[in-house]
Amino acid sequence: MPDIATPRVEIIGVTDFQKPAGVPWDQGDAVGGAAAAEFAGRACYQSWNKPNPATATVDGYIRHILEVGHLSVLEHGTATLYLTGVSRSFTHEGIRHRHLSPSQLSQRYVPEREAAVVVPDVIADDPELADIFDDAAQYALDAYNTLLDRLTTKYGTNSTAAKKLARQAARAVLPNAVETRIVLTGNYRAWRHFINLRATPSADREIREVAVAVLRALQACPGSAPVFADYELVTYHDHPDAPVTTIAVSDLADGDTDR
Ligand SMILES: Cc1cc2nc3c(=O)[nH]c(=O)nc-3n(C[C@H](O)[C@H](O)[C@H](O)COP(=O)(O)OP(=O)(O)OC[C@H]3O[C@@H](n4cnc5c(N)ncnc54)[C@H](O)[C@@H]3O)c2cc1C
Fold first, then answer.
1. Where is 153: in which H helix or E strand?
2. Domain housing 245
3. 197 neighbors 214 (Cβ within 8 angstroms)
4. Interval between CA 161 and ligand 1 midpoint (Å)
C-alpha cells in the first residue's frame, strides 16, 4: 500500500516593502505587500493625508480598494507558497491560473519508486472504496517500477539523458493521485482570483481544500492579511452523505474588475 500524502501549504516569501524617503505618509501598521498596495493606491493621487477614518488604517484602505475595484494596486504585493502533499490532479488544475508562476517537482529527474498518493476524502472515508483505491495505486506503482527497471536495463544509467529516457516513459502509468510538490508565486490579485474560483462549492474538493489553506496562510501573514481579510470561512456540504468541507465567501469576491 503506498504512503498517503496530505496537503501542506507554507508561505516561503512575501513582498518586502520599504517606504521611500521624503514621502509624508504615516505607514501605521501597514507592512509587506499590503503596505505596497496601500502606498501604490495613495501614490496615484498623492493622497498621503488620512482625513477619512474609514480609510486611515491599512485594513480600511484595502477594503475600500476592494469595494471600488481598483484591483491593480494589489498586484504590487506578491506571495510565494510551497505546496506539498498535493496530487498531480491538483497541480493540473492549479497551473491553469496563468498569473501564478509554478516550479514543480520533475518526474523526469526524480524517480517516483516510492511515490505517495493523495486519497480523495470521499474515498478515504469509505473503507471498501479505500481498499479498491489502495490496490489500484499499488498496482500502478508496481507497474511503474517494473517498467523503470526494464527501461533502465535497456538504456543504462551513464547519463542524465538515459535516466530521463526511462523515467519519462515509466511515469505514464502513474495515477493522477501521485503526490507532487510545487512552488507557486503570484501577486495578491492573482491569489484572490485563485481563491474566488477554487475555494468554492463548484471546485474539486482537493483544490478547494488547498485554496482554503492558501487563504488561511495569507490571512495569517501580516504582509498580506489586510488584502484577504474580507473572506470568511464557512462549512459546506456537497452532499448529505459526504464529509463536510470549508469554503471561502466574501461580499467583495466578485469585484474582479479593474480600471
Ligand atoms: C469549477 C471549475 C471547473 C472547470 N472546468 C474546466 C474544464 O472542464 N476544462 C478546462 O479546460 N478548464 C476548466 N476549468 C479551468 C478554467 O477554465 C480556467 O482555465 C481556470 O479556472 C483559470 O482561470 P481563468 O481563466 O480566470 O484565468 P487565470 O489564468 O487565473 O487568469 C486570471 C484572469 O486574467 C485574465 N486573463 C488571463 N489570461 C488571459 C488571456 N490570455 N486573455 C485574456 N484575459 C486573460 C482573465 O480575466 C482571467 O480571468 C475549470 C475551472 C473551475 C473553477
1. helix 127-155
2. 1-119+178-259
3. no
4. 35
pLDDT in tens, 174-213: 999 999 999 999 999 999 999 999 999 999 999 999 999 9
pTM of the model: 0.96
Instruction: Decide whether any atom of ligand 1 lies within 6 Å of the 97 Cβ.
Output: yes
List Cα–Cα distances, 64 to 17, 61, 73, 172, in angstroms.
20, 5, 12, 49
In-domain check, residue 138: no
- CATH number where 190 lies: 3.30.70.3180
Q: Which of 89, 93, 96 to mutate to test the pocket of ligand 1 (most atoms within 8 A of CB)?
A: 96
* Number of domains composing the chain: 1
Is 143 part of any domain? no
* pLDDT per position as a tens digit, 153-171: 999 999 999 999 999 999 9
Is there a domain that residue 106 lies in? yes
